[in-house]
Amino acid sequence: MALEKSNNKSYRVTWKTNSNGKRSNVRISLGATSALSHAKAQVMHDMIMGIRTTITLNQSLDSKQISWLATISPELHNRLAAKGLVRERLARRTPDEYTLKKVIETYTKARSISTATESNQKQAFGFLQNYFESLKDVREITAARAKQFAAQLPKCRSKGVYATSTVSGHLKKISALFNWLVDDKYIESNPFAGIKKPMTRKLENDYYVSEAEAAEYIAAQNDPQWAAILTIGRYCGIRGPSDIIDMQSKHVDFEKKTLIFPSRKNGDRKCPLFWQTEEVFKWLCQRQDDLDPQGYLFIDNPAGGHGKANAWSDVRMSGDLKDLNLRTTPRSRYQKVTGKSMCTKIYKNMRASRVTDLRKRYGEDTHDVCSWIGHSEEVSNSSYMMMFENDYPRAADLGRTAKGNKSGSPSFGGDKMGDTMPSPSLSTQLSDAPQDRLMKGRAQHQPVQGTLLLQELTTLLHSNPVATDLLLSSISKTTKNLKSSSNRGRTCTPEGTGS
């Protein structure tokens, strides 16, 4: 079999085999394309296929194959052992291989990661090396020393201190390195395993971007592409350039009303084509078809506005997403037009606002929303869900439905304090037919439903006219049902009173 590339990110060797009468593929990863040249990968491929042939013919490995196996990394040797091509070997390392510098090099070469992640990882490992510069062996890093390093990490910034989110991210990357060292038998336990990561969310930075405010941001832009980016940010919850830099018209299905965001961070995510973004994507796709049917939806702006005039195409080549700034230009334009400032962390807050809308205002299923936006339920709750100010007074009034209960305190059926409602006897409970209990439950819940609808109306009146119209229609239907329910079985006397 020929040498293969997996998603253009790593090389691998593949061959077919028969097992119990079924044909299947066997794959062995060789390493990331960024760390391995095609020529070297081809040599590795040819050597592995030669070893496979030797094993299949039940022959002994020749001296060239044995010498090559002695030079390969432990990770590749383990992969070959897992496929039955070689025997598992015990770790025999020189003192130099236990230095922090060497293990970081080995770990980095064994992983296939994005350019942005590689940059952040390099910074985290740089701090680690500087702090433990005097140590000659990773086995000397104890849990106590790891805690001391974690305490000093926020102060490693040249000016001020690092944000908790940055510190947490660095500690996660360092802990992953030491987990790998444990798995590869360098050390027995991870000294960073017991260190608590600082809370990454600063609640003071949370800001709900209403649809009305988002419309102001969008209207202030003098370039349709910027308006499109902000619209997609508010209603599709994009993280930033990583979600849209590789987007093409093939990722937009107007018939099925779906979008695919080919994110460089977490891979493809499928999202509804929300009606607020439909016209935006029609314009983007039409522009792409006119310029280059095989091109991208988001293109370079001759006037610049991203830090560089050719930012989009340059970043697609380099993979360094930090060179593509989607904040400064729309923020400065909005301030120039309105004299007001955009909120901080604009894309994160628009993403959080959309998540909160879908889950709290529109009541969409949590699993669906997490799939659309591209994160887990745990992350949705800890990093994105927001509280509305009227959540508190609304919750404070829950259950205030008793007739004549002006104070709002619970009433238990007595006229004086201390009176209680007698519990029904067991015979009374058993005598209630299921249909009777159902009708009683409906009668009890109808006033509650009306109250909740009115409370929801207060929340939405100023924020969403469409939702308000739907809510008013629902209230009207509920009121008619209440009236018809109260008039059932009544007959009118000549005097007009019910009997």
Give a brief description.
This protein is mainly α. It contains 20 helices and six strands.
What does the model show?
The chain has 20 helices and six strands. The protein has 499 residues and is mostly helical. The strands form two sheets. The protein has a three-stranded antiparallel beta sheet with strand order 1-2-3, with helices on one face. A three-stranded antiparallel beta sheet has the order 4-5-6. Strand 5 (258-263) and strand 6 (267-272) form a beta hairpin. Helix 9 (224-236) packs across helix 14 and helix 14 packs antiparallel against helix 15. The longest helix is centred in the last third of the chain and has 27 residues, at 434-460. It is globular and about 85 Å long. The model is unreliable at 403-449 and 486-499 (pLDDT under 50).
Contiguous helical run count: 20
Q: What's the SSE pattern?
A: EEEHHHHHHHHHHEEEHHHHHHHHHH
> What are the low-pLDDT stretches, counting only 5+ consecutive residues below 50?
403-449, 486-499
Q: What characterizes the major β-sheet?
A: 3 strands, antiparallel
Keywords:
single chain, 499 residues, mainly alpha, three-stranded antiparallel sheet, globular
Blueprint (SSEs and pairs):
Layout: E1 4-6, E2 10-19, E3 22-32, H1 38-56, H2 63-71, H3 74-82, H4 100-110, H5 115-131, H6 143-152, H7 164-183, H8 211-219, H9 224-236, H10 241-244, E4 252-253, E5 258-263, E6 267-272, H11 275-291, H12 311-318, H13 328-338, H14 346-361, H15 366-373, H16 377-384, H17 391-396, H18 426-431, H19 434-460, H20 465-487
Antiparallel strand pairs: 1-2, 2-3, 4-5, 5-6
